[in-house]
Queue: 2 jobs
Job 1
Amino acid sequence: DGGITQSPKYLFRKEGQNVTLSCEQNLNHDAMYWYRQDPGQGLRLIYYSQIVNDFQKGDIAEGYSVSREKKESFPLTVTSAQKNPTAFYLCASSASRTYGYTFGSGTRLTVV
Amino acid sequence: GESVGLHLPTLSVQEGDNSIINCAYSNSASDYFIWYKQESGKGPQFIIDIRSNMDKRQGQRVTVLLNKTVKHLSLQIAATQPGDSAVYFCAEKVPGANSKLTFGKGITLSVRP
C-alpha cells in the first residue's frame, strides 16, 4: 500500500546535537512538508518542497534544515541552533493536482 | 496570525448524540476546505473536504457545511462514538500553483460514554 513513513517514532537528543528525522513517501507526490506541533497547539509549517532539489522556508524555519535530493524523501535536520526542539514533528505530502495532504504518523523529539 | 480559527477549544458530547464542530476562516479567496482528525500520538487523517462551489458534502456519518457569506465551515458527526474522540482541524487553501493549506488550531472532541 502507498503511504508516507516517518522514522523514528521517538527520538531523544542531547543539548548541542543535531538530529535528522526521516520522511519517505511512495505515493509519487511532488510536494512534501514538515510541520511542528506543540502540546495543545496547531500545526506550524517549518519547510516545504514543491519539487526535487527545491525547498522553501515556512513560518518557523530557524534552527532547521532540509534537503530534497529524491522525490520520495524529505529529511529534516533539527540543529543545535533550535533552542526549543522538543515537539511532535509531522511530515506530509501532496500531489500537484490535488489539494489534500497525506500525513505521516509523526516523530516525537525530546531533548534530554 | 493564522487565517483559520476555531470557536471553541474543546467539545464534550454524549455518545450517540450528534456533534457539530465549527471553524471560521478569514480569507474570502479560499476555494478549498478540508477537515482532519488527529488521534493522540498519531498524524492527522483526512475526514472530508469541500470546494467553494458547494454548500454541503456528505460522507459516512459526517457532513461538512460551507457558508461563504459568513466565512464559516462546520463538521457534523452523526451518532458520535467513543472512537470519534480526537482533535479536529480545519484547513483552507487559496487558489494558486504554490498555495499551501492553512490549518486552524484544532478542537478536542471528547465523547462521554
Note: DSSP finds no helices and eleven strands in chain B.
Job 2
Amino acid sequence: QVQLVQSGTEVKKPGASVKVSCKASGYAFTSYDISWVRQAPGQGLEWVGWISGYNGNTNFAQKLQGRVTMTTDTSTSTVYLELRSLRYDDTAVYYCGRGGYVHGYDYWGQGTLVTVSS
Amino acid sequence: QSVLTQPPSVSGAPGQRVTISCTGSSSNTGAGFDVHWYQQLPGTAPKLLISRNNNRPSGVPDRFSGSKSGTSASLTITGLQAEDEADYYCQSYDSSLSNVVFGGGTKLTVL
C-alpha cells in the first residue's frame, strides 16, 4: 500500500534551518510529484511547493522563494524539504502529499511539527 | 486572505444536506483549472474527497459530490452524519501566481 512517512518533530531557533524528510513506499516513486503543504496552528492549509519525482524539477510558493529547497533521493524514494532563515511564522505542521495540481493529492504523510522558538 | 473563498462555517442536522462553496477568479477556477476537495478531521492529515471537480476516489461515500461552473465550485454532502464533522478545503491552481492555491477552509458542524 502507498505510504508517505515523515521525519519527527523539530524545534529550531529563529534564523536557523530545518530539513524535513518524506519517505515514499508502495508505488513507483519516479512516476509522481510530491508536494509540501503546511498548516500553522489553528489556520488553514498553505501550499509550500512541489518537486517532480521524475526529474527533480521544482516550483515553490512565491512567499517562500529564496528560503526553500526541495530535493529527492531516488535510491531511497525520499523527498526532502529544507527551509532556511526560519521565522516565528514558519511554525506549522508540514505535510507531504503525493500528486499535483491536476489530480490533487491522494496520499499524505502524517505531518511534521516544526516549531520556531527562541 | 485566501485566493479561493469559502464560508468559514456551515452546519446541518443529521440526515440533512449541506453545500460548501468555493469561489475563485479568472486566473484560477475561471481559467478552467480543476478544483479538488479535502476533508480534515481534527489532528489528522487532509484526505482527498473529490478530485477534478466531481470525481470521488475509491472509498469515498457517494454522499459526497462536487460540481464546478465558471469561477465557482461546490461540495455537497447529503445524509449528513456525525462523523462528517470536520474542516473542508478546496484547492486549485492559479496561473498568475503559478502556484497551487487553497481555500481558507470551512468548518462543518453536525448539530
Note: Chain B has no helices and nine strands.
